Amino acid sequence: MLVDTHCHLDAAEFDADRAEVAEAAAHAGVGLIVVPSVERANFGAVASVCREYSCCLAAYGIHPMYVERAREADLDALRETVVREHPLAVGEIGLDRFVDSRDDARQEFYFNAQLQIARDAGLPVLLHVRRAIDPVLKQLRRCRVPGGIAHAFNGSRQQAEEFVKLGFKLGFGGGMTFPRASRIRELAATLPLDAIVLETDAPDMSPEWMAPPAPSAAAGAASDAVVDGRPRALAARNTPDQLPRIAHTLAGLRGITVQAVAEATTANATAVLPGLARIH
Predict the structure, then answer these.
(1) CA atoms 102, 218, 227, 224: torsion sign
(2) Which of 8, 34, 241, 260 is surrounded by the most beta carbons within 10 Å?
(3) Which pTM was predicted?
(4) 45-104 per-position pLDDT tens digit
């Protein structure tokens, strides 16, 4: 069995065929799917998906890219939701230093507040760390939480080791499947296997075999929504049933069997997200 530790199955991209997507994942051997929220407005959608599909477990949080429209009352709602729903984790939370038009102080305020909520609830966290690994680590040292996952990890070996020291696993997904992603692939091949979990981040972060050609500059300028540097309109929809091929990539990089990858990454996910044991 495989665990997809990060999949936005509640996203609008799945509204037309969510049941079929979940069924395809199950048939592919993806037994558990972690579904994180991105803002208060989709707490209900995440909860609904996780009630509908027994393979799904929820995490609730406010993504750094959504804090511009967040209000402090949303933090109260998060606390209440954590108490009521008993989620797997608090997430997706963190910092993002990729987008130019951003409010770093606002991101840090909401990140720190959500770390405190996770700490008080004794829950791990699902971290967004895009171009912000050192600031995220700084906050984690100030507010210790029961570990979690650094989603879509793309840092250095030293940064990876710092996360591991703090009780975190590192999420590897579609980015690892691109031959030119040399740093990610080197880390995937050489980090201790017990530090790694797998993810798709569906519907985003499509793996190499699903990725379209890079768009022209004109096409990029015509789109407001960008996913991994590409306009969302041009990005192929990723799905959780792609996880076995991602696992196959990791197995090839490490020179081990896919079965060994599945067993190790499932054990790692369950260790860092103890709530998975409720249905594993």
Answers:
(1) positive
(2) 34
(3) 0.92
(4) 999 999 999 999 999 999 999 999 999 999 999 999 999 999 999 999 999 999 888 999
Token output for 270: 């369950």
Going from the C-alpha of 36 to that of each of 132, 141, 214, 222, 263, the distances in angstroms are 20, 23, 28, 29, 23
Q: What is the pLDDT of residues 155-183, one digit of tens each?
A: 999 999 999 999 999 999 999 999 999 99
In angstroms, how far is CA 252 from the centroid of its own chain? 23
Determine the Cα–Cα distance for residues 140 and 264; give it in Å rounded to an integer: 26
Token code pair at residue 237: 């929809």
165 close to 129: Cβ distance less than 8 angstroms: no
Domain 2-229+238-278 -> CATH class:
alpha beta
Name residue 193's amino acid.
Answer: L
Domain boundaries, given as residue ranges, for the chain? 2-229+238-278
